[in-house]
């Protein structure tokens, strides 16, 4: 029987919410993606919180919040503790994305869902894999192999292939088949007939993407029009995803057209983003790799784009036409939000959206048609505390510290009590330790200051605290015939000073944070957030252009038709899009299409029956294979036998004549190709009324559509004609297209 | 299982005839009992893989190439290059451009980037005549288009050969390749180092034990000093020399170890502010060009570098500056200069050496393996005097230190690596025959207990190994609805892709593969204006099964012949035949066509016999004919006692024939067989073709 596979969506079905799905393969639970939206809405994570502790491994597909945003929170608060797998760029850029989000949030609110440390510790759990690396799971997941494959869309973006017992489960969301400037297209099409394919319906209704060249030209024209009329352009972007493509496009245009308008890339982590991206050439498109090999010029060494990490730097640059790429794409928080508020009122300016914003965000509102004339926004700012507030804050802090120390001492007391109690219980021979080298954890019990404080506070001294003897510490040193046993390691001097310096380096933050960000983070001066609500009149022009880098509906359908999984699961996409794609796939891809609801567990265990047999040498020596494309194929008649190790094996039949079987014609004939073929043989051919007229009298028709692969039909070709030499001639040509077995 | 001593000339034959063979044949075309021109050829089950494609640095022209004449380059499926060093990659442009090789070439990203720079430089500096040139700059550029890249651990498959690579240490981008052909795994280490250094990871231990391990043996049984001791020695020598006002010359090959030494120096300088006024130069244009590659492929390096990268690129040196030529160099005080070539043969390193060798304050640190016959090798022995490039002699007063930073595995690394891998077959390459022999001795005693075979083939000496590969197939789909018990028969399509086999029902073919099955339905019309009954009658004489049916569409009379072909009266003047194509149906239809044509030609003469001949009468008539024919054959033929039994007596031998079942009983085997055959032929001729024999 096949491998058991269950899919349970935790978030992101029948809508455009973040993605998170539980895929269980023979009882091993994979959490594939754990996304969050830009609002960090905890209610979205409820389904995840119910299953987080049962997850055995987490797979991440793309380095943006929609695919990995909730990882730190889930690790800290929801009890998720499984190992995480991602590609190197997803790890690195995902980390930077989370930093950027945190810092943007922290700037304008008392954000407390997770901290930078939580992000760091969550990402430390990630095992980084290379493209097409087969990773063999161990322990509970023995026998499962996972492999990331290129998905396009974002740098490092992954299609996950999970294999067990030769059956593939493929998770492919947000893929892009088109080659872009910085990325190759997806390799999804190279997988054929997987047992299960999980994919999204996000773009199912979108079709007719303009050709890249045309779109780029439009983009350039729009930008230049604004710049030439002295306008400023704001492009709200993500932190380290699609922005890379935009950066390359702009860089290239500026280079080609010798433009001098300044371009700024403003996020809290922009310079480290670009630094890292420079080292990810292995993951980028062939053309970028080739140009580096030939000229050693890294495409991400930016000559025309200035990287900024704080808004004050932007304020320093002279006023005038410019382009600013700023995070977040949602305009909800971050630099883009602030800049939008400043620039929106000027009709010369332009806000250029390059992707559909998340649901219920400011950007989404502005993308609606017609755009709102005015929007209400909340301006928040973190300002240092002064005067009374500062005094109040300090008081509060001291209070807090006191409480903490109280608590700590209470705990210590408890510990001391416990340890004393222990000692009393042990009560071994009384040896007084001469060298007073107590283990540090116990030493805390001796700090009488704190200890006494509590006792004085009117508590009855606990009975065990007044022991019948002086505090006694067991001597942990061992003795032998020659005296105390020493551990030579304690005395060796670490001569690898190199590693120490490395430790220092590591000590000041794992990921590089830019100065401003670091200052914000390390800034301990008391501050508070003040908010004010104001109405912004949107006079600037708003333009949306599709630079999302996802395959459109018609290409998706084509790819799905090509991959033609045995079972298909649809997730992520509006209800209409999901329904539309489901209907299409039922008709054209395979009969088993599922679109589960949240927390609806569907069983996509393949109803495939399979067993393994050994092919004996005797049998194989009698088989003549016919080669068809990548395949070699033969008819086999054999008798089942058992080997010593009790596995089934196939032996040649003992009776000489094999049982008759119906002849199988193997081959896929395309009418158009066959027409060409006949024409090349000097036969007049033309299509007439759905049939192929060959020569004078013979017609060839095909019934049953072969595109519907899952349906289990065999293509029928009808050859009709009067008795004539031509008939047999054409029949011979037709037969030549097949391999009879 | 393994044998050496195969005559070299047999290889060509072997590679062409081994298409179905289970023999794994491994032949070093270079680096067999020598160092240089690494190239190992391997074939198994009709697939051919070649590892590395180097030149021998001690020879020039064609003599430097591996023995390519021994193989058929066009038969090679995949060529895998482990790293960019000349003795592993430099004959690649020749092999790609000047031979019949048509396979695919793979190397890692970093290797490819440096390969081009290194070989362009090699072509420029090699001082050979134009005829001796193996290739030119253009060939290198063209070869770049053919080389494909592979990332570490990325699994690729070409023509059924699966392969992936592991980190090898040694130099940036160096890889060890694991090749899997039909379940037999071969690991080729190339040059590797199991010791992590300042920027490279140590060679990984593969997850799976290979069946064959082809491993380098450069250092044989020698062992290295611990790295931190060597580093301390290195920095101490330099520190003391410059603090006493001396100059330090480090002759080093431009790529590989040089970067490691620069990292050491840059870090040492950072930690010692008192040295900041002492400049460090690296004088190699090639190294400068390759720096961009080092700055980019950070992800191929170790975690240390990657973590440092979080703060700043460690290859952006703070205390080291490049030096274009000696003219730029102002020799005014203490300095550290790293210059190529490493052997002090000529060039900048030699110029500086000549200038500095007489001052005893100065020092020369030789950081790696030095080749026999070079000045560097000479001064290691600390002679009193040396000959300068100008031909004059000068006293050698400068201190000479030899501190090896060579990133090859030593004996300890090799033995632990092999001990952990436990490959059943070990093939030693890339080592001098003496070192290799010693290593073999030691390894033999190390693996004394097991069945490990250690082989040290010479160039062109083939190693043959036999692997019993058990082929397993997976039966899937309808065919596998229930696992069969022993003794049952299984019939279906056996589909082979790469080295995996599947058995399936024909209906499932399109489900589990990209192939599909077709069905050709034929309909042919034949002019015929006679009576349909004539056709029916004649068909009945030939075929046992002729069922009259009514065509559903038109309601006309039709006949189903042999359960395959439908004959239908289309109109007054036509009949039509309708069948699904397969060889037997085609034959039946052909006979029907012939019959119809005959019938229509014979039309006037035909006398339709009474339809009501009755089954019994017809059977009797048939019986008579059979009997008559048997008599004509055997003479004495009598009816036996039972119904339908005949007794045949030939020269005293008696055979009993049952005419209904066709069974014959006789004491005489010869007669029995003859009677049986005769009866079969007679019935074939007299009776209509029965249905079940189709």
Overview of this structure, please?
The complex is a heterodimer of chains A (741) and B (694). Chain A has 741 residues and is α/β, with parallel strands linked by helices. In chain A, the strands form eight sheets. Chain A has a seven-stranded mixed beta sheet with strand order 6-5-4-3-2-1-24. A seven-stranded mixed beta sheet of chain A has the order 7-8-9-10-11-22-23, covered by helices on one side. Chain A has a six-stranded parallel beta sheet with strand order 14-13-15-12-16-21, with helices on both faces. Chain B has 694 residues and is an alpha/beta fold. The interface between A and B is large, with 102 and 94 residues.
According to CATH, the homologous superfamily of the largest domain in chain B is Ribonuclease Z/Hydroxyacylglutathione hydrolase-like
User: In order across it, which strands form the biggest sheet of chain A?
Assistant: 6-5-4-3-2-1-24
Low-confidence stretches of chain A: 423-459, 495-516, 706-712
Q: Helix fraction of chain A?
A: 25-40%
Characterize the main sheet of chain A.
Answer: 7 strands, mixed
Name the overall outline of chain B.
elongated
Q: Structural class, judged by helices and strands of chain A?
A: alpha/beta
DSSP E strands of chain A, number? 34
| Separation of the first and last Cα atoms of chain A | 28 Å
Topology:
The complex is a heterodimer of chains A (about 750) and B (about 700).
Chain A: E1 5-11, E2 20-25, E3 28-34, H1 46-51, E4 57-59, H2 65-68, H3 71-77, E5 84-87, H4 88-108, H5 116-124, E6 126-129, E7 135-136, E8 144-150, E9 158-164, E10 167-172, E11 196-200, H6 212-228, E12 232-236, H7 243-257, E13 263-266, H8 270-278, H9 286-295, E14 305-308, H10 311-316, E15 322-326, H11 334-343, E16 350-353, H12 362-367, E17 374-384, H13 387-426, H14 440-443, H15 448-456, E18 479-480, E19 483-484, H16 497-507, H17 515-522, E20 527-537, E21 541-544, H18 553-563, E22 567-571, H19 575-588, E23 593-594, E24 602-603, E25 610-615, H20 617-621, E26 626-628, E27 631-642, E28 648-652, E29 665-666, H21 671-680, E30 685-688, E31 691-694, E32 698-703, E33 715-722, H22 725-735, E34 739-740
Parallel strand pairs in A: 3-4, 4-5, 5-6, 10-11, 11-22, 12-15, 12-16, 13-14, 13-15, 16-21, 22-23, 25-28
Antiparallel strand pairs in A: 1-2, 1-24, 2-3, 7-8, 8-9, 9-10, 17-20, 18-19, 26-27, 27-28, 29-34, 30-31, 31-32, 32-33
Chain B: E1 2-6, H1 10-17, E2 23-30, E3 39-44, E4 47-51, E5 78-80, H2 86-89, H3 92-98, E6 104-107, H4 109-125, H5 137-146, E7 147-149, E8 156-158, E9 161-167, E10 175-181, E11 184-188, E12 212-216, H6 227-243, E13 247-251, H7 257-271, E14 280-283, H8 285-296, H9 303-309, E15 320-322, E16 335-339, H10 347-356, E17 363-366, H11 375-380, E18 385-387, E19 393-395, E20 399-402, H12 411-421, E21 425-429, H13 433-446, E22 453-455, E23 462-466, E24 471-476, E25 489-497, E26 500-504, H14 509-512, E27 517-527, H15 532-542, E28 546-550, E29 557-561, E30 565-571, E31 574-580, H16 583-601, H17 615-634, E32 636-639, E33 645-650, E34 653-658, E35 664-666, H18 669-686
Parallel strand pairs in B: 4-5, 5-6, 6-7, 11-12, 12-21, 13-16, 13-17, 14-15, 14-16, 17-20, 21-22, 24-26
Antiparallel strand pairs in B: 1-23, 2-3, 2-23, 3-4, 8-9, 9-10, 10-11, 18-19, 25-26, 27-31, 28-29, 29-30, 30-31, 32-33, 33-34, 34-35
Helix pairs in contact in B: 3-5, 4-5, 4-8, 15-16, 17-18
């Amino acid at each position: 029987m096949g491998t058991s596979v269950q899919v349970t969506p935790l978030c992101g079905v029948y809508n455009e919410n973040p993605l998170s799905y539980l895929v269980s393969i023979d009882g091993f639970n994979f959490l594939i993606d754990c996304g969050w939206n830009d609002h960090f809405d905890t209610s979205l994570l409820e389904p995840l919180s119910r299953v987080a502790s049962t997850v055995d491994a987490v797979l991440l597909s793309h380095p943006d919040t929609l695919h990995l945003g909730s990882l730190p929170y889930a690790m800290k608060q929801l009890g998720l503790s499984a190992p995480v797998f991602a590609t190197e760029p997803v790890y690195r850029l995902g980390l930077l994305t989370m930093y950027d989000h945190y810092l943007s949030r922290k700037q304008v609110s008392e954000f407390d869902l997770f901290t930078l440390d939580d992000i760091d510790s969550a990402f430390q759990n990630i095992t980084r894999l290379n493209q097409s690396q087969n990773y063999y799971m161990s322990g509970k997941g023995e026998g499962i192999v996972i492999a990331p494959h290129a998905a396009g869309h974002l740098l490092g973006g992954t299609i996950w292939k999970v294999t067990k017992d030769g059956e593939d489960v493929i998770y492919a969301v947000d893929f892009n088949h088109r080659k872009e400037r910085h990325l190759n297209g997806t390799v999804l099409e190279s997988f054929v007939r997987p047992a299960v394919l999980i994919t999204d319906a996000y773009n199912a209704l979108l079709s007719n993407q303009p050709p890249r060249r045309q779109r780029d030209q439009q983009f350039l024209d729009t930008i230049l029009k604004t710049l030439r009329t002295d306008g400023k352009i704001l492009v709200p972007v993500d932190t380290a995803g699609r922005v890379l493509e935009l950066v390359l496009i702009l860089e290239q245009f500026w280079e080609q057209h010798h433009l001098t308008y300044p371009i700024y890339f403003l996020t809290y982590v922009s310079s480290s983003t670009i630094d890292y991206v420079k080292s990810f050439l292995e993951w980028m498109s062939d053309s970028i790799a080739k140009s580096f090999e030939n000229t050693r010029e890294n495409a991400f060494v930016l000559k025309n784009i200035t990287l900024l990490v704080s808004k004050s730097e932007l304020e320093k640059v002279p006023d005038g036409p410019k382009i600013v790429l700023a995070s977040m794409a949602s305009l909800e928080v971050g630099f883009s939000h602030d800049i939008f508020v400043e620039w929106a009122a000027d009709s010369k300016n332009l806000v250029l959206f390059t992707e559909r914003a998340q649901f219920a965000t400011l950007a989404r509102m502005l993308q609606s048609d017609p755009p709102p004339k005015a929007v209400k926004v909340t301006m928040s700012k973190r300002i240092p505390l002064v005067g009374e507030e500062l005094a109040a804050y300090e008081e509060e802090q001291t209070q807090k510290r006191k409480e903490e120390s109280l608590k700590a001492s209470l705990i210590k007391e408890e510990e001391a009590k416990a340890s004393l109690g222990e000692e009393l219980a042990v009560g071994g021979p009384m040896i007084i330790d001469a060298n007073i080298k107590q283990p540090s954890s116990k030493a805390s019990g001796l700090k009488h200051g704190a200890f006494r404080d509590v006792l004085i506070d009117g508590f009855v001294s606990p009975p065990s605290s007044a022991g019948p003897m002086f505090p006694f510490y067991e001597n942990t040193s061992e003795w032998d015939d020659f005296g105390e046993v020493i551990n030579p390691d304690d005395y060796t001097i670490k001569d690898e000073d190199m590693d120490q310096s490395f430790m220092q380096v590591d000590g000041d933050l794992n990921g590089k944070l830019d100065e401003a960000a670091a200052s914000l983070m390390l800034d301990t001066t008391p501050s508070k957030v003040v908010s004010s609500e104001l109405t912004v009149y949107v006079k600037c022009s708003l333009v949306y252009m599709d630079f999302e880098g996802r395959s459109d509906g018609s290409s998706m359908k084509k790819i799905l038709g090509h991959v033609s999984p045995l079972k298909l699961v649809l997730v992520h996409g509006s209800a209409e899009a999901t329904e539309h794609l489901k209907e299409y796939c039922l008709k054209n891809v395979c009969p088993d299409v599922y679109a589960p609801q949240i927390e609806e567990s569907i069983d996509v265990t393949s109803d495939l029956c399979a067993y393994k047999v050994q092919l004996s040498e005797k049998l194989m020596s009698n088989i003549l294979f016919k080669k068809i494309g990548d395949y070699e194929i033969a008819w086999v008649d054999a008798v089942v036998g058992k080997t010593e190790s009790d596995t089934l094996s196939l032996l040649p039949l003992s009776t000489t004549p094999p049982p008759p079987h119906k002849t199988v014609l193997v081959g896929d004939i395309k009418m158009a190709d066959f027409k060409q073929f006949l024409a090349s043989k000097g036969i007049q051919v033309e299509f007439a009324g759905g049939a192929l007229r060959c020569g004078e009298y013979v017609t060839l028709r095909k019934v049953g559509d072969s595109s519907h692969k899952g349906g289990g039909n065999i293509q029928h070709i009808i050859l009709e004609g009067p008795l004539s030499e031509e008939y047999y001639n054409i029949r011979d040509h037709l037969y030549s297209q097949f391999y009879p077995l | 299982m393994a044998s050496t001593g195969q005559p070299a000339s047999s290889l060509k034959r072997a590679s062409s005839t081994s298409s179905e063979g289970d023999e794994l044949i491994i032949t070093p075309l270079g680096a067999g009992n020598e160092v240089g021109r690494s190239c190992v050829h391997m074939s198994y089950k009709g697939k051919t893989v070649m590892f590395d494609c180097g030149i021998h640095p001690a020879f020039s022209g064609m003599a430097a190439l591996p023995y390519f004449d021994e193989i058929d380059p066009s038969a090679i499926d995949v060529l895998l290059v482990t790293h960019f060093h000349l003795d592993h990659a430099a004959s690649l442009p020749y092999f790609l451009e000047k031979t019949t090789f048509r396979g695919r070439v793979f190397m890692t990203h970093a290797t490819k980037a440096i390969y081009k720079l290194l070989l362009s430089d090699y072509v420029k500096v090699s001082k050979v005549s134009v005829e001796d040139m193996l290739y030119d700059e253009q060939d290198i550029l063209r070869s770049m288009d053919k080389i494909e890249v592979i990332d570490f651990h990325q699994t690729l498959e070409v023509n059924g050969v699966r392969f992936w690579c592991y980190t090898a240490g040694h130099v940036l981008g160096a890889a060890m390749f694991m090749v899997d052909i039909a379940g037999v795994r071969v690991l080729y280490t190339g040059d590797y180092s199991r010791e992590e250094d300042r920027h490279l990871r140590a060679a990984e231990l593969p997850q799976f034990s290979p069946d064959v391990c082809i491993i380098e043996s450069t250092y044989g049984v020698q062992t290295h000093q611990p790295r931190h001791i060597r580093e301390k020695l290195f920095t101490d020598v330099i520190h003391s020399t410059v603090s006493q006002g001396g100059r330090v010359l480090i002759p080093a090959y431009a790529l590989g170890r040089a970067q490691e030494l620069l990292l050491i120096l840059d870090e040492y300088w950072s930690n010692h502010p008192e040295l900041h006024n002492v400049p460090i130069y690296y004088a190699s244009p090639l190294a400068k060009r390759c720096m961009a590659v080092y700055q980019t492929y950070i992800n191929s390096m170790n975690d240390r570098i990657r973590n440092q990268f979080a703060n700043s690129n460690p290859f952006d040196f703070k205390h080291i500056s490049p030096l274009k030529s000696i003219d730029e160099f102002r020799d005014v005080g203490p300095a550290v200069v790293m210059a190529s070539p490493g052997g002090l043969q000529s060039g900048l390193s030699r110029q500086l050496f000549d200038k500095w060798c007489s001052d005893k304050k100065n020092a020369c640190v030789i950081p790696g393996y030095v080749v026999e016959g070079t000045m560097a090798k000479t001064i290691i022995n600390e002679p009193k005097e040396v000959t300068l490039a100008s031909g004059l002699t000068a006293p050698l007063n400068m201190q000479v230190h030899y501190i090896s930073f060579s990133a090859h595995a030593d004996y300890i690394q090799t033995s632990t690596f092999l001990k952990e891998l436990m490959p059943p077959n070990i093939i030693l390459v890339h080592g001098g025959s003496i070192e290799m022999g010693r290593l073999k001795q030691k390894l033999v005693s190390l693996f004394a207990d097991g069945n490990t075979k250690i082989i040290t083939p010479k160039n062109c000496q083939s190693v043959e190994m036999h692997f019993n590969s058990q082929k397993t197939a997976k039966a899937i789909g309808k065919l596998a609805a229930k696992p069969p018990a022993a003794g049952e028969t299984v019939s279906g399509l056996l589909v082979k892709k790469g080295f995996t086999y599947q058995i399936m029902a024909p209906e499932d073919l399109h489900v589990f593969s990209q192939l599909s099955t077709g069905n050709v339905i034929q309909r042919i019309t034949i002019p015929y204006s006679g009576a349909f009954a004539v056709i029916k009658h004649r068909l009945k004489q030939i075929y046992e099964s002729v069922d009259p049916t009514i065509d559903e569409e038109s309601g006309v009379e039709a006949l189903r012949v042999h359960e395959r072909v439908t004959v239908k009266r289309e109109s007054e003047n036509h009949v039509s035949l309708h069948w699904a194509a397969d060889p037997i149906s085609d034959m039946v239809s052909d006979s029907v066509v012939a019959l119809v044509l005959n019938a229509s030609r014979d039309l006037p003469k035909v006398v339709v016999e009474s339809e009501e001949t009755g089954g019994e009468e017809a059977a009797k008539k048939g019986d008579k004919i059979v009997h008559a024919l048997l008599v004509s054959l055997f003479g004495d033929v009598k009816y036996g006692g039972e119904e339908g039994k005949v007794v045949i007596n030939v020269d005293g031998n008696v055979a009993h024939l049952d005419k209904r079942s066709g069974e014959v009983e006789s004491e005489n085997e010869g007669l029995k067989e003859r009677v049986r055959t005769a009866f079969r032929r007679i019935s074939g001729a007299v009776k209509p073709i029965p249905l079940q024999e189709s």
